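Let's practice the habit of predicting before peeking. Look at the sequence and jot down your guess about where helices and strands might fall. Then scroll down.
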Amino acid sequence: MELINRLTFSIILVFILNGIGNACNLTSISIGGNKSQIEKYFGTSEVDIIDPEVDISEVEESFYEQDEITAIRNSDTNILETATDVICPNIDFGNSIFKAYIFEDKIAGVGIEVLNGSDNEESNKNLLHNYVVSTFGGIANNSSDPNWTGSKTWDIGGIQVTYYKMFYREKFLLEELQITNAEYAYYLIDNEPKEDDEEEENDG
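Done guessing? Here is the structure:
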């Protein structure tokens, strides 16, 4: 019986990993599962960008003050990062990263974050927005407008899917899709940048 259970677990794990890589089915990732399920997609460091053309430090510096960056990295939640095409090779998300939020060696959530420059060119392409709409459903009537900001959350079988776009310093667009659940959502919220006096429309 124990052998059968081990084989069943191994088969399920293979399907999960294949589902992530082939179909970009982010909701198939086991939230609350051990981080070893997705560690193979990342390097040995806590923050490891596969694509050498993507420099997350420069992007972060343009969004956050230095003390805010330190607070994020020193929180109880570790963030693993890699190029999105490592996880979703068949989908074009433009200049973006895949993030795994790890709390006490458990997968608290995963996400895809768009890396915008000062002109917000990447978000203006609507690549992540279009993926969210086609995968999870409509967001808002005008959400395809480059100047739209807001958020929406879907509850899919106990999985919490959140998409948001908001301005930081009234200039830089922050855009991310996050997958978590009610138990671990707190550990992602604690790592989100705080909105800077910009009213956010909530269509959830």
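How did you do? The first strand starts at residue 77 and ends at 83.
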